[in-house]
Amino acid sequence: MTTLPVNAPSGAERLPIIGFIARDIARDINVVFYLLTIFVTLVVLAVKTWGVVALAMTALAFVPVMFVILICITLG
Fold first, then answer.
1. Contact 46, 40 (CB under 8 A)
2. Pairwise CA distance, residues 56 & 58, whole Å
3. pTM score
4. What are the entry keywords (predicted)?
């Protein structure tokens, strides 16, 4: 069993990309559109490289996201 030291970084500091993106979005909301464009471009390139399998894996990764969105809609 591994224990973290007392001065262990928080969740956002452990993954510096997420913290960076969160700070960027807080400063300028238009960053969301840039990130969405980058994501769609990566999916298109993956489909061109690996075929429909890449599209299926992307859809599979979004299943938990859609469950959370649907639960939030029904609770709100």
1. no
2. 5
3. 0.62
4. Membrane, Transmembrane, Transmembrane helix
